[in-house]
Every structure is written in C-alpha cells, then in structure tokens.
Recover the amino acids of this structure.
C-alpha cells in the first residue's frame, strides 16, 4: 500500500490544501517563538521547550536557533527522532523503566547529550548498567512531585536519598531536579494558577537547599509550562523552562484568565485544523471532514475560527458536526474553514504533516517525525 504524501505543496494557495490538514500560521508561530525566547533570556533562565507538543524536528531546530539549550521529550522514540533530526541536547522528562528502552537511551547517549528523569532506585541501578554496557555517562534528574500528584518522589528527604544513590553510580551523574506542575498550567483563575506555581517552586527550592546542606550540587531545576512561565521564570528557583504549547496554543489555554480577567493572549493562536464541509443536508447542522481522527477532544471540542456562535458538536471518527442554527446559510457544501483545537498536543499527534502558511500561501511542509504512540 502506498503511503499518502503531504496534503499541500510549497507555493500552493491555502484554498487548494487537501483536508483535513494541520495549518501553522507562520507569522503567529514566529511571534510565539521569539516572545518566549526573549522573555527567558531577559529573566536569565534557559529555555528547554517540550517537543511532545510538535513532535517535529524542524520546529525543534528553530527553537534551538533562537537560543533554546535543547528540548524535552516524553518517550525514547521521540528522543531518537529528535536526535536523528539534528537536535543535540535532549532531556527525557519522564521515567523510563523497561530494560530495552534503557539500552536505547544509553545508545542514544553516544550521539547526543542526553539526560533522563528517575523516581526509583531500582531503575537507577538498571540505567547505570545500561550506560556501562555502552560506555557512556548519563545525566539523571530526580523527579519530585511538585503538586501535580503524578510521577516523582516526595520533595525533601526522599529526593535527597535518591540523589545520593544516583551520585554513587559509576556511569550516572546527578544533574538536578525535575519539578513540573502540570495541573497548574490550566487553573483558570490567574491568582490561583500563580499560587500553584509558587508552591511548586517552593518545594523545589527547599529540596535544592537540603541537597546543598548535604554536599550535593543541584545544577538544574527544570519545569514550568505555558500557563505558569512568568511565575516560573521569576521564581529564582527554576533554571530551565519546559513550556511546549506556547508555540501553537489551543482553546483550552485560551480559557485561562489573566490577572484582570481577560483572555490569556500572551501567545497567538498559530495551529489550526483545516477542514471542509462535506455534507450540508439542509437541517440545523453541517458536517465537516475533521472528526476524532483529526482533532484531539480530551480537553474539549475545537472552536470554529472566525465564526462566533457556530459550535462544533458530536464528533465521530471521520465527521464533525457544526451547529449552524444561529446562521443557517453561513457554510455551504465544499466551504473550507479553520478549527482551533481544544488540545494541541494530541491533535498534532494525529497528523503526519504540518502545513506552514504565510498569508494565503503555503511556505513549507514539515513532517511530524515523532508522531504515533511511540515507545
């Protein structure tokens, strides 16, 4: 079976792009890249963006070109794809347990600067053995539970014990702390979101100080995200920011409020699902060709861009329904439109290509090299 090619070609008019497709508005995208790169530099913190958002080596290279020290990945397969794509500094900001995956990590460390997180002493032992087999030294960060109630040892003494265990290994090097508070990113009220960010930084800072009292240097404290980056950058604790969604944005992040109650508009919406009306049966709805296989709905339905009062409802595998009762004639059969995804990360993972557009023309087509479930 022949694999499908990209849905667009360079120079093509947007109207000719095949649907469903992922569009990246380059003007908005480049604004977002520059905005956080400049803010991180001004705050004297390093930027290590999360590649799970875009899974695209071209995007990662652009982030590094603007000053990012490297990128984060969640899976070994993502890290492999990024290194193959030319990225030379990768943090796997997750726990890797399976021995074959640990061996792949160690092998990858022969080609790039690689670091990984841990929250278990037994896994540290297995990672040290894998590193020894490949004659490499791997940097390891202790992941602490900074309030997200997910992975990580408790801050304080448990983190100290694990850091000491890492430091005792012949093929590992204790590098610092992973302190990501994922829940904080989507707290809607600005003051509550900032409070959660401060609590995470406080837990990381106290753990850093405890390590120092025991003679263990903590060179890196990495974490933070798109929703809390101003507090993270100003905390005096984080040395790296791991924001990912800022390059694209989505409807869920748009629901966050600023301190004055306004829209969270620090970054511009640059990612859209391009779709077409495939059925207009003349009732209270029209059907577009972007369903569950084209857009992630885990954080809510996509939003129709530029058409207020036309909700996207009841998706199925290949169909998305738009309720047009407020404006029955606005969308006719064959009409093409843009949707703002509810959650950008899983939406990108459904597509093989990013179609980069400027104005009304396709400027580039980028492969999503790390898409899929990964391992």
């Amino acid at each position: 079976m022949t694999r499908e090619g990209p849905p667009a070609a360079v120079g093509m008019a947007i109207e000719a792009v095949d649907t469903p497709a992922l569009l990246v508005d380059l003007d908005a995208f480049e604004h977002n890249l520059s905005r956080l790169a400049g803010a991180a530099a001004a705050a004297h913190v390093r930027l290590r963006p999360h590649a799970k958002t875009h899974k695209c080596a071209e995007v990662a290279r652009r982030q590094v070109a603007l000053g990012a020290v490297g990128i984060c990945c969640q899976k070994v397969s993502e890290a492999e794809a990024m290194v193959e794509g030319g990225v030379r500094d990768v943090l796997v900001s997750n726990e890797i347990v399976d021995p074959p995956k640990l061996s792949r990590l160690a092998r990858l460390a022969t080609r790039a600067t690689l670091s990984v997180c841990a929250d278990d002493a037994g896994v540290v032992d297995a990672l040290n053995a894998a590193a020894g087999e490949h004659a490499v030294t791997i940097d390891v960060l202790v992941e602490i539970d900074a309030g997200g109630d997910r992975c990580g040892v408790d801050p304080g003494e448990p983190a100290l014990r694990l850091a000491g265990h890492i430091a005792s290994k012949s093929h590992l090097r204790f590098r610092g702390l992973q302190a990501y508070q994922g829940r904080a990113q989507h707290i809607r009220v600005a003051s509550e979101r900032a409070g959660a960010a401060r609590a995470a930084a406080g837990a990381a800072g106290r753990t850093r100080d405890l390590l120092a009292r025991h003679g263990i240097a903590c060179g890196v404290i990495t974490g933070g995200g798109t929703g809390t980056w101003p507090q993270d950058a100003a905390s005096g604790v984080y040395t790296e920011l791991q924001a990912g969604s800022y390059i694209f944005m989505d409807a869920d992040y748009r629901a966050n409020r600023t301190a004055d109650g306004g829209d969270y508009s620090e970054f511009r919406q640059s990612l859209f699902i391009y779709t077409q009306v495939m059925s207009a049966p003349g009732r209270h709805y029209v059907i577009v060709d972007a369903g569950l296989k084209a857009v992630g709905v885990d954080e809510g339905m996509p939003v129709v861009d530029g058409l207020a009062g036309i909700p996207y409802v009841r998706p199925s595998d290949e169909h998305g329904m738009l309720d047009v009762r407020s404006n029955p004639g606005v969308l006719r059969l064959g009409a093409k439109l843009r949707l703002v995804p509810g959650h950008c990360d899983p939406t990108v993972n459904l597509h093989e290509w990013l179609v980069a557009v400027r104005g009304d023309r396709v400027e580039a087509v980028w492969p999503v090299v790390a898409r899929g479930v990964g391992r």
Q: What stands out?
A: The chain has a mean pLDDT of 96. The radius of gyration is 22 Å. The chain has two domains: 14-22+265-367, 26-249.
